[in-house]
Amino acid sequence: MVVWMFWLIAAGVLFVIEMFTLTFYLLWLTAGALVAGLVSFVYPDAVLLQVVAGSLVALVLTMFSKPLSARFRNSRGFRDSGTDIVGRQGRVVEPIEPGRYGQVKVGGDTWSATSLQYLGKDEVVRVVRRGTTIIEVERWGEMY
């Protein structure tokens, strides 16, 4: 098998994983692998050039996409649906122990969740904070 096929397979695997995670980090690695595959197609014996070209593309895309996404998020009229979850009510689907993750259903979505207290199944909770994909909850009715 020729080297460019390995790069193409790596790009495909990274892209499929990206579709499941939706983080965009693997998308830039996918683009880097595609560029490395293109370099490999043109210069099949220049492995170092392939790695450097792919790495540079992934690095440049990562560096320039961060300010663009920050500008987009701060633009007028942008509304992140994930921030609306804070303060909403949910129900524990999988028990949560302090220091371990559980599952909470908020609206129609199920989230991985943490809490400082033990929360049993079917307890009603309030979302206190949201990370990227994990929310922090507390028992409903407990205010500080």
Classify the beta-strand content into a percent band: 15-25%
The helix/strand order is: HHHEEEEE
Q: Say how many strands there are.
A: 5
Write out the strand line-up for the largest beta sheet, numbering strands in chain order: 1-2-3-5-4
The 3D shape can be described as elongated
Model regions low in confidence, pLDDT < 50 over at least 5 residues: none
Helical segment tally? 3
Class based on secondary structure composition and strand pairing: alpha+beta
Helix content: 40-55%
What is the domain total for the residues? 2
Largest sheet: 5 strands, mixed, barrel
Q: How would you state the average pLDDT, rounded? A: 88
Q: Indicate the radius of gyration in whole angstroms.
A: 21 Å
State the end-to-end CA separation: 63 Å
Question: How would the blueprint of this fold be written?
Answer:
Elements: H1 3-21, H2 25-42, H3 47-74, E1 89-94, E2 102-106, E3 109-114, E4 124-130, E5 134-139
Parallel strand pairs: 3-5
Antiparallel strand pairs: 1-2, 1-4, 2-3, 4-5
What are the salient characteristics of this protein?
OB fold (Dihydrolipoamide Acetyltransferase, E2P)
